[in-house]
Amino acid sequence: MKAANEVPTESTSLVGDGTDGEAKTAADAVEGSSGFCSKEVLWQRRRFFLYIIAPYFAGFLYGYSIGAISGSVDSLDAAVDGTLTTTQKSALTSASLIGATVASLLTFYVGETLGSRKELILGGCLYLLGTIFTECTGAHWSFGAMYGWIFFSRCTYGFGIGFAMHGAPLYLSETSPADIRGLTIAGKELFIIIGMVTGYGVIAICDGAVNEWITWRISWSVPGFFAIGVVWIMLYAPSSPRWLVLKGRLAESADALRQLWPEMSADEAAREADETLRSLDDVPKDDGPAVAAEEEASKKAFNPCSEEEKQKWAKLGTARGALVGGLGLVFFQQLTGQPTVLYYAQSIFIDAGFSEEDAKFSDLYVGLAKFLATLVSLPLVDRLGRKPLLLFGITVMMIALILLALSFSGAVDWIPQVEEEGEEDDGSHPQVLVALMLYVAGYQFGFGPITWVMISELFPLHSRARALGMAVFMNFALNLITTFTNGPLVEALGQCALFSFFCVMCALSLVFVHFLLPETKGKTLEEIDHMMSSGDLPALKWILGLFGSGETGERDFTL
């Protein structure tokens, strides 16, 4: 049996793109991304492309909630004659984020047991339930009952976000061929952006065309159709072959591979599953005991104090290098200003001197900029690599933040206003619009798509679900904190100080990416696991040495 920290060969990948002198499998029909669009490869990957629509729809529903929430809450407030207080509006706006944060905590314990496929099904059902609950709101209910029910409904929808955003990157990373894994996972980011723009568009179309009561009902009914699509597709999709191997269910893993890749022979599928098994050292070797062990583990899934859970956390602790890389990436993604620009674009425009009427279009500007930048960056993920795009994107963000800080400080007005004769300067600063678009473009080249690609790749298979749960929880928790604290911080410090802080965080993130993140382009997940466990990054090995043995690949699973 191959040791857990022994490098696997190219042929050990379930869906890799390497060969060992034997005939290529159906998933290995092309070497590198250059052949990705050939008719033969597209035909061989037809089922795979069909199945990944479900995680993409799950991302769309997350993005849609971001795009539609502000306008929906405003319409609801107008429908009840402005009864909502500022606190109530903020709570309702953040309800789905609260639900997502709580759900991401649950993924620590149920994610590995359920698997990414069942998580997506559960997420889709919660999306649908949240939508149905919202639409069941009675028109003649008391204000308190109506508000409480809608808040509960949006939290339910948020639970769907939490489970779906944990399951989607897992499923995409563990079923994608190595040559297009980056593009496949980053594609979810594109669908999040499409969802955001769709949400903005639905609100814009309904605004003025129908009354406020109908506007918020329509805007919150759209997700139901896509939620049905998520559940329906995943009911027919196979489970992740790697997850099945982790559970010791080799025969089912081989069947899942053949369902993903119809041209793969039974012998090839069995060999792929067996090779992946060799990269693990504590998995049952036949299906009977594995199923019994899984059933027993599921009974303990909600007991965080059990010995089983302690062993799993201890095992996760052996992946210190991956945890530093993955969680550090999420930390810098959230603390370099993204939530502020995403949720407070209108406030930034108003503070820059634009009228409220002009500021209403800021969300649309931001959404379109994110969409166009994502379209350009997606094909480059597997061509240029993860680190070059991250370094480029963060640098662009830092330049934009410097310009924003200077603009709000009043030290520079680098796009002069040109007034027609007889017109007065309205006090607005067009450079703020340009800088915001530059910031958004930089984010979508770097942190936007790459963060979710890399956290789906860095964590080892034995703890990937749990580690990704930590990353998802950290993402939503930091998002929630920065969203709630942005207003008070702006009032206390001003926009200039806040953008200056984000600029400093960008500078620190450049150092982090350069020294502590590996390049994962073109590597199988097993090769990445070996790279992170063997100490190939000297700076990361040195830092971990300050807190332990210095060996990133230590495999002592005992507490």
What keyword list fits this structure?
559 residues; mainly alpha; Growth Hormone, Chain: A; 0% strand; globular; disordered C terminus
Structural class computed from helices and strand pairing = mainly alpha
Q: Please name the CATH architecture of the domain at 303-412 and 427-559.
A: Up-down Bundle
How would you spell out the order of helices and strands? HHHHHHHHHHHHHHHHHHHHHHHHH
Oligomer description: single chain
By CATH reckoning, the class of the domain at 303-412 and 427-559 would read Mainly Alpha
Describe the overall structure.
The two termini are 25 Å apart. It is built from 25 helices and no strands. The model is unreliable at 1-36, 281-285, 288-295, 298-302, 415-427 and 549-559 (pLDDT under 50). It has 559 residues and is mostly helical. The protein has a domain at 303-412 and 427-559: MFS general substrate transporter like domains (Growth Hormone, Chain: A, Up-down Bundle), CATH 1.20.1250.
Task: Give the arrangement of secondary structure elements.
Layout: H1 39-44, H2 46-51, H3 53-79, H4 86-135, H5 143-175, H6 181-206, H7 212-219, H8 223-236, H9 241-246, H10 250-260, H11 266-277, H12 287-299, H13 307-317, H14 320-334, H15 338-343, H16 345-351, H17 356-359, H18 362-377, H19 386-409, H20 430-445, H21 447-458, H22 464-493, H23 495-516, H24 525-533, H25 538-545
Helix pairs in contact: 3-4, 3-5, 3-6, 3-7, 3-8, 4-5, 4-8, 4-22, 5-6, 5-21, 5-22, 6-7, 6-18, 6-21, 10-11, 14-21, 14-22, 14-23, 18-20, 19-20, 19-21, 19-23, 20-21, 22-23
